Amino acid sequence: MSATDKNPASRPHDDTSEAPAAAVLDPAGFFRRIPLLPHQLASRRTATSDVIVLCHLGVPRITTDAWRLTIDGLVERPTIIDYGRLLSFPKVFVETVHQCAGSPLQPEVAARRISNVVWTGARLADVLALAQPQSAARLVWGYGADYGAFDNVPCDTYLKDFPLSRLNEDVLIAYELNGADLPPEHGYPARLVIPGFYGTNSVKWLTRLTLATERADSPFTTRWYNDPELDETGRPTGARRPVWSIAPESVIVSPAPDAQVTAGTICAVTGWAWADGGVDRLDISCDAGVRWHAATLEKPTGRAWQGFRYDWTPTAAGPVTLMARAHGRRGGVQPQNSRRNAIHCVPITVV
Ligand SMILES: Nc1nc2c(c(=O)[nH]1)N[C@H]1C(S)=C(S)[C@@H](COP(=O)(O)O)O[C@H]1N2
Ligand SMILES: [Mo]
Q1: Does the Cβ of 161 fall within 6 Å of ligand 1?
Q2: 272 and 342, same structural domain?
Q3: I need a labelling partner for 225 at 20 to 30 A (CA). Which of 101, 251, 258, 262 fits?
Q4: 9 secondary structure, DSSP code
Q5: In degrees rounded to 5, what are phi and psi of residue 233?
Q6: How many angstroms separate the CA atoms of 29 and 14, rounded?
Q7: Given this model, what pLDDT does residue 9 score?
Q8: Residue range(s) defining the domain that contains residue 270
């Protein structure tokens, strides 16, 4: 494949082996787990049985024996590895927020499908080095073994892309979640994990990586998962931006919605805050956004979410709306509403 080829997928694949049979999907079709609500996220690390699950097309069943990963496109040496070879790379751990961006059909709804987990796997940089990427490569396209239709659009694979510049040490081809083999619905036997990017980019049941100069031409990269760019006044500019980097966000874990707290007694407002690049300030409002107070915030450690706490002593009885607002270290602050990272509001009562 030449360095000037802009659309590798349109070319015959130069892998000489037979095309593998399509994996069986079980279940076939859209499949997800209802995520924990914010007040249920008391644990720093989310148990695997509580982690969000989002499968647009179904759950392919692939054995480690059958699994192969093809690396092609703008590389000097198109390469195929098997599962044993994947395990032979240095094993690395990443604790990271794992967040679903929400439905691509409702990109402005704050879905708060979040978790904080530990992935184990090989560094993508180590695996790609085998194939010797060409300097012209700008994007990594990742293909999943799933297929079918989403929102009545036929899809012969789940294909996503991300910038090669992101290929720092923590992009993984993961084979473990929270210290055990990936469950089938989380991408067994191997998946991409791009810490700091929304979960949609972390392709499960990964079968192929193609290096390219252009974005992938797939419904999951063109039709869905692109946000309108906004100007300073919040109006759309007409341009669209891939749903990649996780915007600053936070949730209040305690008190829970509809809790009763006692006037004159300290109420600890606690929760989690996160952003691609970390959060450097977290504000709490105990009067529906009129006044804001700085909470105590844990320093970012790697990609994990950061705990916060604000000790509030309510004075008057009555209904109150608590709010948390995260500021990203790389800029950005949670908007009031109509965005996936809109401020989390918790109505409670002071008695
Ligand atoms: N192959 C494939 N990868 C996928 C998806 C998918 O449908 N197919 N869903 C994506 C979305 S939208 C999210 S939020 C995450 C969810 O990962 P999880 O189910 O392991 O939590 O996987 C992403 N990777
Ligand atoms: Mo998602």
Answers
A1: no
A2: yes
A3: 251
A4: G
A5: -90, 0
A6: 30
A7: 42
A8: 249-350
Q: Are 68 and 81 in contact (CB under 8 A)?
A: yes
* Length of the chain, in residues: 351
Output the domain CATH number for residue 312.
Answer: 2.60.40.650
Work out which ligand 1 atom sits closest to the CA atom of 185. 19
- % of the chain residues with pLDDT over 90: 89
pLDDT of residue 260: 98
Return phi, psi of residue 164, to 5°: -60, -25
Determine the Cα–Cα distance for residues 283 and 47; give it in Å rounded to an integer.
Answer: 28
- Distance between alpha carbon 228 and the CA centroid of its chain, in Å? 19
Distance, CA 254 to ligand 1 centroid (Å)? 29
Q: Closest residue (by CA) to atom 16 of ligand 1? A: 54
Give the Cα separation of 221 and 243 in Å (integer): 9
For the Cβ of 274 lying below 6 angstroms from any atom of ligand 1, the answer is: no
Same domain, 152 and 206: yes
Domain boundary among 161, 193, 228: 228
Full-prediction pTM beyond 0.70?
yes
Please identify, by atom number, the ligand 1 atom nearest to the C-alpha of residue 32: 19
Query: Distance between CA atoms of 265 and 314, rounded to whole angstroms?
Result: 7
Q: Is 35 helix (H, G, I), strand (E, B) or coil?
A: coil
Contacts for 328-331 with beta carbons within 8 Å, 24 or more apart? 328/247, 328/248, 328/275, 328/276, 328/277, 328/278, 328/279, 328/280, 329/275, 329/277, 329/278, 329/279, 329/280, 329/300, 330/275, 330/276, 330/277
Q: Is the CB of 143 under 6 A from ligand 1?
A: no
pLDDT at 15 over 60: no
Closest CA relative to residue 192, chosen from 206, 178, 208, 180: 206
- 19/202 Cα distance (integer angstroms): 23
Phi, psi of 190 (to 5 degrees): -155, 145
